[in-house]
Amino acid sequence: MQTASCPNCGAPTEFKSLASVMAVCSYCRTTVYKDGSAAHTLGQVSEVLDDYSPIQIGTSGFIEGQAFTVVGRIQLQYDGGLWNEWALQVGDGQQEWWLSDASGLYTVTRRTAATQTWPRFDELKPLTRVEIGGIPHVVGDVRTARCTGGQGELPLGLRDGWQARVADLHVADRFVTLDFSDEEVPVLYQGKSVTLESLKCEFLRDDDTVRAGSYRYQGKLGSMTCPACGTAIRFLPRQTEHLVCQSCHSQIALTGVKAEVVAAQEKIAAAALTLELGTQATIAGARFEVIGAMRRTDDDEQWTEYLLHNERRGFLWL
Predict the structure, then answer these.
(1) What is the pTM for the complete model shown?
(2) Residue stretches of the chain with pLDDT short of 70
(3) Does residue 157 come out as left (phi exceeding 0), alpha (psi in the -120 to 50 range) or beta?
(4) Is 300 in contact with 91 (CB distance < 8 Å)?
(5) What are the phi and psi torsion angles at 96 (to 5°)?
(6) How far apart are the first and last CA of the chain?
(7) Beta carbons within 8 Å of 186's beta carbon, 6+ residues apart
């Protein structure tokens, strides 16, 4: 382990992983870059927002037979929401590993050599195919995201506003990210979809801590009052963008901690539900709760889809 003094406040900053090139000072939020025996900074990064992730710095587990420890994270935001990338120290710490955490969906990837010709970032479109190592992979998502915060130590240099241009591809449980953030030729990360159980994670945040942190950030206790009729509505802070009041059926948009009725005169029709909101069910050994429902129509068919949530495993559609 290497220790450097923060160039701004002088506090000691530890580098546990050999793959780390920078760390965020836990006292003043200054970025500390290690350069041989010297340390310098390019400014400060914002503090990460507390969310529903059970992962934290210090969480440990096993991947591919090797022990790992979470040593840092960056938080990224795009039009569709927010997700975390957790930096891992795996084995002797010489390789760059990441644990991606998107509302309970987890993937582990490792930086690998990219030895083939790649399409340009603007050529990649969802559902198109790209051969990687002779195996066709399907492009699942292409996005440009903005870094909104960081903590701990990281294998890359960043500052507030740093943009990530990435494409995610998959085949079966294999997962690939092509990172075009800094170069026209992408950095290749390969891995697979995982669960916290399969990683045998320890030192996770407990459920009470997760709930308390997220609700404290929002200033809410997991419920709000409908602006149209005053009915109490339960919701997930920082995970919910739109609500439908179960009493008056007004459509409500959440902007930050503010709720606005966006369709007061266009209330959606009340739907008869087979599963009521709040219904709980055990799926694959985990307790899920019905938190939303959506009536859909396709030609002459109608059906209802239910959104379920578990604090450890995230969201499921039924």
Answers:
(1) 0.71
(2) 1, 33-43, 159-160, 210-224, 227, 234-242, 253-271
(3) beta
(4) no
(5) -95, 115
(6) 47
(7) 114, 118, 121, 167, 178, 179, 180
